[in-house]
Amino acid sequence: MLSPYYGLYLVLGLVFRVTEVIIGLLKLDLVARALEAKFGNFIIGLNDSRPKEDAPTDSVSKTELDHLAKMVTFWWNKNGPAKMLHTFYQVRVPLVVEGLAETGRISKADISKPDSLKGVRILEAGCGGGVLAEDLARLGAYVVGVDPGTQMIDLAKRHLETDSADLKDRLEYHAITVEEHAKKFAGTYDAIVCSEVMEHVDEKVPILEACVRCLKPGGSLFVTTENQTMLAWFVFIIIPEYILKFIPKGTHFYEKFVSPGQISKILDQYQCKTKRVRGFFYDRMFNSWSFIESDECNYGLHAVKK
């Protein structure tokens, strides 16, 4: 059941859609860019002005990794700043399970079984501290988690060893980028999950191309991220970083958000066709997630490699 917060969400969505139309008609986006160029971060959370490497070797900058490493201390606290990650399974897991049933990789009759992903080999690209990787492994999948953040991988390994030892035979972690991983494991996986990663990388193409390369023909790629809209900017930057202040400022930037259409266009270049896009809604009152028709704020995308 959706709370009154959903009503506010709908109103905000309407207001921001109208605002975006006005901005487009008056070309105010050009004015904003000019102000950003002259004065730096003129609009909160718009652009990432942090220093970047002169020649980054892959899609994730060291600056970004250092920032995300600050979250290690509260990543597995289910009642802390990252609590929304721990209820995110309510949409992330069905996105994967139902998607694999739609392609025939698992039987539709097995969707509700506790081992619905038994025999499925999954790569999680950008696994962070291992929350989703454990969720998928609990359903019987063999999960390989990769992430270039060594502190995050160390955290994931510690949690597996001390709190989820029953999963050790079907879960492994490696401190490496998916681009590097793809060099040795092309065509290996039934499914790849790249969840809440796109909004942290400067270059989308290398990581998506590597994900597709790791898939078997007919394999599924699942991407979850924030759409590049004013509603997403307000919901995932202004509220959590500047109003409620429960995650560090500079965790997200509007310029790094990406629409499902942009992701689909990139995947098309690598013979990976988008099959479905599902909108998500996070209810802050009840710390719960649900699927909705609109993908205006954040979404899950399912694509299949030809």
TrEMBL record:
GO molecular function: 3-demethylubiquinol 3-O-methyltransferase activity; metal ion binding; polyprenyldihydroxybenzoate methyltransferase activity
Pathway of action: Cofactor biosynthesis; ubiquinone biosynthesis
Needed co-factor(s): Mg(2+)
InterPro entries reported for this sequence: Methyltransf_11 (IPR013216), SAM-dependent_MTases_sf (IPR029063), UbiG_MeTrfase (IPR010233)
GO biological process: methylation
Name of the top EC class for this enzyme: transferase
Coiled-coil zones: none
Residues annotated for Mg(2+) binding in this entry: 196, 199-200
Swiss-Prot/TrEMBL catalytic activity: a 3,4-dihydroxy-5-(all-trans-polyprenyl)benzoate + S-adenosyl-L-methionine = a 4-hydroxy-3-methoxy-5-(all-trans-polyprenyl)benzoate + S-adenosyl-L-homocysteine + H(+); a 3-demethylubiquinol + S-adenosyl-L-methionine = a ubiquinol + S-adenosyl-L-homocysteine + H(+); a 3-demethylubiquinone + S-adenosyl-L-methionine = a ubiquinone + S-adenosyl-L-homocysteine
Gene3D superfamilies per UniProt: Vaccinia Virus protein VP39
Cited CDD domains: AdoMet_MTases (cd02440)
UniProt xrefs under Pfam families: Methyltransf_11
Residues binding S-adenosyl-L-methionine, per UniProt: 92, 126, 147, 195
Membrane topology (UniProt): Peripheral membrane protein
Family: Belongs to the class I-like SAM-binding methyltransferase superfamily. UbiG/COQ3 family.
Subunit-structure text: Component of a multi-subunit COQ enzyme complex.
Listed name of the protein: Ubiquinone biosynthesis O-methyltransferase, mitochondrial
Organism of this sequence: Culex pipiens pipiens (Northern house mosquito)
Species lineage: Eukaryota, Metazoa, Ecdysozoa, Arthropoda, Hexapoda
